Amino acid sequence: MATTATTAPAAHRCSYEDYEATADWLRSQTEQRPKVAIICGSGLGGLAEQLENRVVIPYKDIPNFPQTTVEGHQGQLVFGTLEGHQCVCMQGRFHTYEGYDVYKVTYPVRVFSLLGVRTLVVTNAAGGLNSSFSVGDIMLIKDHINMPGLVGNNPLCGPNDDRFGVRFPCMSDAYDRDLLALAQQTAEGQGIGAFVHQGVYCMVGGPTFESIAEGRALRTLGADAVGMSTALEVVVARHCGLRVLGFSLITNMVVTDYDSTLKANHAEVLDTTLMRTQDLQGLVRGILAQMPVDPEDLYK
Ligand SMILES: O=P(O)(O)O[C@@H]1C[C@H](O)[C@@H](CO)O1
Ligand SMILES: Nc1nc2[nH]cnc2c(=O)[nH]1
């Protein structure tokens, strides 16, 4: 009998023991015990270079880890300290368009949770849909539209493992409002508020960029930016109780006009990340510098 995304065969899902085996192996490679995980988007891996006392572990050496296949994603975990926080950075993430299922794409998030991570910072490169945005703007993600999840391709499909979280997790609070406010305030303090906005990120499957009709439809749905990642990771992070802070770098404007001759392409995406990577790194550092090391102390 044919299987659908909602009834993925158990073999495609990962067991608690798989996640634990990976977490145990990572613990055996470093004494660092990160509380913050950072997933770096396309061309945005430079943030991991900022860590002090770095321990670098290639994905190919990590049990059960997938490999990155996309240009701009290096394929290694970097442990280290940033602004006083013990962090683990994914220099390269996984996407469903690479052929990975939603369980593999989100595999690292549950491993991070088992390692003791409490806060997840996600970054991505995205196409701008909001006509007031410009290329090079930074969007603080205040909400998402999880397009794969809405049609049943959700990493929480299948039997629920209560050791991670509840069967029906809430997503109306997916992006931590206190961290969002701190990010906005930090951006203003750093004098970059003019190109930092808040907005809704829509995840689509890719790897095609949007047709004009698709771009228009997503804008009508309420998306301010569109990309091919992040929402699945955030769903799994919220399921296991992590706080989430998300950033989209607007690397191109989605074409929504039949008279336009612009054509989205990955080279342009990577070029724009070069232009803004320092600002984004500075912003993340500025936020971490003001964030209490113990998340329980946040805003006490
Ligand atoms: O990993 P992210 O979401 O930053 O990567 C975006 C989406 C595609 O992977 C790629 C398209 O250029 O950039
Ligand atoms: N889907 C999608 N992903 C992107 N990632 C960077 N730019 C884009 C875009 O225009 N569309």
Tell me the distance between the termini: 54 Å
Largest sheet, in brief, is: 5 strands, mixed, barrel
Question: Average pLDDT, to the nearest integer?
Answer: 93
Total of DSSP H or I helical runs spanning 4+ residues: 8
User: Number of DSSP strands?
Assistant: 9
**Silhouette:** globular
In what order do the strands lie side by side in the largest sheet?
A: 5-8-7-6-9
Secondary-structure element string: HEEEEHHEEHHEHEHEH
Report the uncertain regions.
1-6
Radius of gyration: 18 Å
Comma- or semicolon-separated keywords:
binds guanine; disordered N terminus; alpha/beta; globular; 300 residues; 5-stranded mixed β-barrel; binds the ligand O=P(O)(O)O[C@@H]1C[C@H](O)[C@@H](CO)O1
